């Protein structure tokens, strides 16, 4: 009897201490923002859904804060198959497909709902088809958010207040040009370098959604926040085409549906941040102004014609599709 009890105890101990079975597939998701940022709320929702629905066959690992590289490096990792999933804004992808710059013309979208209507419709289908020529699989759209200007020089109430102000922008052509046409002096720079650049007065300020401004503690180096709302940006959730083709159809379906189902969670987090963070940033000492958006939009308006001249029918069609969804 003793031997039986001992054997049973050993078996139970072995079951408790034995390592869990390794997942059949590992998916790495990489971002450049902090863990509590809306992007990573989306990433964690993808992780939860994929691991649950695959019964542990797929393990999802989320890498935040630029651990695996900056945005350009992450896209290249997708394209060469060394990373499974990331996202960048439509205009950022203009380095690989120039017409994508059209989607980051200032004041192209009225608000977040307008952008959702456009990207969840025909525009989104055409964007997906275009980027998939570049070794990536498109899975969905996340909200990057409405961008506003912060700086350490002066309050911004009109376009004149932006004159000569050195603002960091992403390295996206029409995004940069929009900020320039508003009156500022744009300086492209990686997001991870921005806080130090503002602290050292290399640039006067920057433009980002409230969630980025708060998460990166830009209130520590910038006193002024202007609610310019000049750009509403959209992230394209992408998977490495090389890695996608190695997945079973069942696993592809699980991952794709998880991204689609996570979109509302991610967008809701952006909306919640926009509703609450303005008061938080004011409490942190930021002086908030509300410039005349119509005056700023008028300065940027000629960029629409410039896009059509540069990119032709595709740019014109996209602008028309966006206008039709107002």
TrEMBL record:
Keyword GTP-binding in annotation: no
Keywords, sorted A to Z: Signal, Transport
Record's protein name: TRAP transporter substrate-binding protein
Record's signal peptide: 1-22
Subcellular location: Cell envelope
Similarity remark: Belongs to the bacterial solute-binding protein 7 family.
InterPro entries referenced in this protein's UniProt entry, alphabetically: DctP_fam (IPR018389), TRAP_DctP (IPR004682), TRAP_DctP_sf (IPR038404)
Keyword Signal in annotation: yes
Native species: Roseibium porphyridii
NCBIfam families listed in its UniProt record: dctP, TRAP_S1
